[in-house]
């Protein structure tokens, strides 16, 4: 009987983990969809109010300053293509994503394509996974 309960517990935990990982991946992809379509309402949903957004240049934004740059056109994303996206559940309410991406932006009127590694930290808040930290680094050519 104990073995059956242990197997059932393990299966339930694995199913929970798969469901949560899928929800984190949806939040990750929500960020990409939000920045490429300039869907500010979606971004306000997937970005936590206390977000720390560190760009590959070292510049740091809060959620408000990041969304503000998208709102007024100082920042424009044309494409976010994932070549790799891994989700790691740390606790029931904290998760990481590690991604390799091709991100195309508009900078000074010109399209710029960067291959970046992204590390995102998500926190579950009232049932919604939200990004609380972003760190990106340019990948070697």
Question: Any overview of this molecule?
Answer:
This protein has three helices and six strands; from the N terminus they run ααββαββββ. The longest helix has 36 residues, at 2-37. It is globular and about 65 Å long. It has one domain (2-138): Nuclear Transport Factor 2, Chain: A. It is α+β, with helices and mostly antiparallel strands. 37% of the residues lie in helices and 48% in strands.
Strand content: over 45%
The low-confidence runs, each spanning 5 or more residues with pLDDT under 50, are 4-16
Text of the CATH class: Alpha Beta
Q: In angstroms, what separates the terminal alpha carbons?
A: 57 Å
The sequence of SSEs as H and E is: HHEEHEEEE
| Sheet with most strands | 6 strands, mixed
The name of the CATH topology is Nuclear Transport Factor 2, Chain: A
* Structural class category: alpha+beta
Number of domains: 1
Total beta strand runs: 6
């Amino acid at each position: 009987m104990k073995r059956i309960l242990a197997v059932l517990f393990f299966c339930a935990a694995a199913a929970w983990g798969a469901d949560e990982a899928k929800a984190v991946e949806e939040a990750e992809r929500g960020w990409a969809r939000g920045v490429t379509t300039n869907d500010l309402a979606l971004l306000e949903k997937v970005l936590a109010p206390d977000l720390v957004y560190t760009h590959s240049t070292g510049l740091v934004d809060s959620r408000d300053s990041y969304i503000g740059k998208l709102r007024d056109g100082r920042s424009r994303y044309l494409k976010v293509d994932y070549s790799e996206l891994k989700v790691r559940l740390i606790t029931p309410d904290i998760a990481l994503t590690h991604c390799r991406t091709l991100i195309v932006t508009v900078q000074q009127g010109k399209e710029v394509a960067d291959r970046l590694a992204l590390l995102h930290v998500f926190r579950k808040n009232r049932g919604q996974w939200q990004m609380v930290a972003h760190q990106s680094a340019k990948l070697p050519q």
